[in-house]
RNA sequence: GGCAGGUUGCCCGAGCGGCCAAUGGGAGCGGACUGUAAAUCCGUCGGCUUUGCCUUCGAAGGUUCGAAUCCUUCACCUGCCA
C-alpha cells in the first residue's frame, strides 16, 4: 500500500506542525514510501495525559496514511528526566519506572494497529541503553555534542541560574541516541514530539548526520494551551489524565464540553479524526449559534469515545444530560438519576445513625476539601441540595429530601455534582 | 574548603521581637452576568467541636512574658573565591 500523499497537508492544516526540519524533504519522503517513524513517551507518571494524546493521535494519523510507527516508552530516559523550567526532577525508583512503563505501554497500544504491512512496534530505550558503557557513551555519543550548543538551549539557559544537574543536562544525549539507535536498527527516519521536545528532536537528527552521515527528519506538535496562553488542567490535581482511575471519564467529558469557544476549532483539528469538511461544517454551525455549543459537544463526544470507548461515552453523556438538563431532578427516575450520579461521583451513606449534615456530606462527596471550605462555600451561596441553594450550614437533609427514596443531589458551584445514596 | 546571600501558605513575593494565620499579585474557588464559552465586576482563599481554639513561615534546639522576625547547630539552594 502506498502512503496517502495528502498526509502532510492535512497535518499542516490541523496545525500539528509547529516546528520542523526541512519540510520539503519530509514531504517528499512521506510521499515516496512508508516512512518508519518514532515518538517517545517518558514514564514520568502512572498515566499519560492530554499533551501525550496529541502525539498518540498524530502517530495514528501517520499510520492511517500508511507509515510505520515505533512507539517508544522511555524506560531509560524515564530514569533520568528531561529538564523543565520548574526545576530539577525527583528521581523515581527503578521499580516505579518499570511499573509506569507497563502502564504507559498499555495506554498507547489501543491507539495503534499492530497488524498489516505497517504494523506498529513498541520499543523501550532501556533495552539499548542499560548495557552501554560510560566510555562508549562518551566516545560515540558525547563527542557529537558541543557543550556550547547544549548551553544555548532555552530549557538549559533558564535553569542555569536555579541550577541543573549533569543528569538532566545530559538528557538530550539519551534521546538523541534513541533516534540514532532506531535509525540504525530499524531504519527509522522521522521523529516527532511536543514542541517542548524540539531541542531533543533536532539533537537526534543532528547526531544521525554527524555520526552516520544519515538524513533524518523531525517535527514538533504545538503546545496545547488555553486561549489566554495558560496551561489546561488546573483542576483535578494538575493534569488531564487518560487513566479513568486518575480522572473519571465523566470529568474528562466535562473538560471538553467546557472548552472556550476560541479553542474549539483548533482542538477539533488536533484531537479528532473528523475530516476537514466535517470540521469546517461544525465550526460554521458553532459560529452561527454558539450557545448551542455544537463544537464542544462534537469534540467531547469524539475524544471521549477515542479514549474511553463508545459505551462509556454514551453513559456519561446521558449522565451529563440528566444533571445539566435544567429540569426538575425529581422528574427523573431513581434509576436514571442514580446512574447519572454514579458517573458524576457518588458516595453511599448509612442512615441508621441519621443522615449527616450538609457540611459533612460536601466533604464526604469530595466536593469540598475540608469542613471549613464547605462552610465557606455555603456562606458564598455556592452549595446546593437537590438544586436548591443551601443557606444554613447546619442543615440536615431529611427523608423528604430523598429523591426516589434514596438519592440526594449535592452541587458545588455551577457544575460540580455529586450524589449521595442513603441506605 | 572559605566568604556572602537565601529557604515564608499552590506559585511569585512582602514582613525583620508583640498590632501576624501573616501585605500584595497570580492561580484556584464561589456569586452576579451568560451558553456547562470568553471578558468584566464582587467575594473568598491553613485546620477545627468557629465570637474562640489548634498547627504553620527549611529542620532541631535556645533567648524572651512573647519569635516568621534574635542566637546556635544542621540541611539544602545561589553567587564569589580556592
Summarize this entry quickly.
With 423 residues, the chain is an alpha/beta fold.
Question: Which key features would you list for this structure?
Answer:
423 residues; alpha/beta; Rossmann fold; Tyrosyl-Transfer RNA Synthetase; Structural Genomics Hypothetical 15.5 Kd Protein In mrcA-pckA Intergenic Region, Chain A; 3 domains; 6-stranded mixed sheet; 5-stranded mixed sheet; 12% strand; elongated
Q: How is this fold's topology laid out?
A:
Blueprint: H1 7-13, E1 19-20, H2 23-32, E2 36-41, H3 50-64, E3 68-73, H4 77-80, H5 94-108, E4 121-124, H6 126-129, H7 134-141, H8 147-152, H9 154-160, H10 166-169, H11 171-186, E5 190-194, H12 198-212, E6 217-221, H13 249-257, H14 261-271, H15 276-288, H16 294-308, H17 310-324, H18 334-344, E7 346-349, H19 358-364, H20 371-379, E8 383-385, E9 388-389, E10 407-412, E11 416-422
Parallel strand pairs: 2-3, 2-5, 3-4, 5-6, 7-11
Antiparallel strand pairs: 1-6, 8-9, 8-10, 10-11
Helix pairs in contact: 11-12, 13-16, 13-17, 14-15, 14-16, 16-17, 17-18, 19-20
The protein binds one RNA strand of 82 nucleotides through α14, α17 and α20.
Amino acid at each position: 500500500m502506498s502512503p496517502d500523499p495528502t498526509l502532510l497537508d492535512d497535518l499542516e492544516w490541523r496545525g500539528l506542525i509547529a516546528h520542523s526540519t526541512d519540510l520539503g524533504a519530509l514531504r517528499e519522503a512521506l510521499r515516496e514510501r512508508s516512512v518508519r517513524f518514532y515518538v517517545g513517551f517518558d514514564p514520568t507518571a502512572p498515566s499519560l495525559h492530554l499533551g501525550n494524546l496529541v502525539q498518540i493521535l498524530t502517530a495514528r494519523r501517520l499510520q492511517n496514511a500508511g507509515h510505520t510507527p515505533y512507539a517508544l516508552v522511555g524506560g531509560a530516559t524515564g530514569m533520568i528526566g528531561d529538564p523543565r523550567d520548574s526545576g530539577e526532577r525527583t528521581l523515581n525508583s527503578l521499580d516505579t519506572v518499570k511499573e509506569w512503563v507497563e502502564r504507559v505501554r498499555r495506554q498507547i497500544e489501543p491507539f495503534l494497529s499492530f497488524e498489516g504491512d505497517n504494523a506498529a512496534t513498541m520499543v523501550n530505550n532501556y533495552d539499548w541503553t542499560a548495557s552501554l558503557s560510560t566510555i562508549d557513551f562518551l566516545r560515540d555519543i558525547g563527542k557529537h555534542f558541543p557543550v556550547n550548543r547544549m548551553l544555548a538551549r532555552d530549557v538549559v539557559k533558564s535553569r542555569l541560574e536555579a541550577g541543573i544537574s549533569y543528569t538532566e543536562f545530559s538528557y538530550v544525549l539519551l534521546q538523541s541516541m534513541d533516534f540514532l539507535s532506531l535509525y540504525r536498527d530499524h531504519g527509522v527516519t522521522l521523529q516527532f514530539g511536543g514542541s517542548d521536545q524540539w531541542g531533543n528532536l533536532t539533537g537526534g537528527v543532528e547526531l544521525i548526520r554527524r555520526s552516520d552521515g544519515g538524513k533524518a527528519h523531525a517535527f514538533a506538535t504545538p503546545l496545547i494551551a488555553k486561549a489566554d496562553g495558560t496551561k489546561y488542567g488546573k483542576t483535578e490535581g494538575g493534569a488531564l489524565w487518560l487513566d479513568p482511575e486518575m480522572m473519571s471519564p465523566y470529568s474528562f467529558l466535562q473538560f471538553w464540553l467546557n472548552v472556550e469557544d476560541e479553542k474549539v476549532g483548533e482542538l477539533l483539528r488536533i484531537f479528532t479524526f473528523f475530516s476537514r469538511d466535517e470540521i469546517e461544517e461544525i465550526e460554521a454551525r458553532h459560529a452561527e449559534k454558539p450557545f448551542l455549543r455544537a463544537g464542544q459537544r462534537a469534540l467531547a463526544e469524539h475524544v471521549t469515545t477515542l479514549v474511553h470507548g463508545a459505551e462509556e461515552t454514551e453513559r456519561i453523556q446521558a449522565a451529563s444530560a440528566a444533571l445539566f438538563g435544567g429540569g426538575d431532578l425529581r422528574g427523573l427516575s431513581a434509576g436514571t438519576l442514580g446512574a447519572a450520579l454514579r458517573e458524576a461521583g457518588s458516595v453511599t451513606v448509612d442512615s441508621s445513625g441519621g443522615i449527616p449534615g450538609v457540611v459533612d456530606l460536601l466533604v464526604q462527596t469530595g466536593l469540598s476539601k475540608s469542613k471549613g471550605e464547605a462552610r465557606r462555600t455555603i456562606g458564598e451561596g455556592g452549595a446546593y441540595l437537590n438544586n436548591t441553594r443551601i443557606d444554613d450550614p447546619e442543615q440536615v437533609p431529611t427523608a423528604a429530601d430523598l429523591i426516589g427514596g434514596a438519592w440526594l443531589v449535592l452541587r458545588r458551584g455551577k457544575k460540580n455534582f455529586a450524589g449521595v445514596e442513603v441506605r
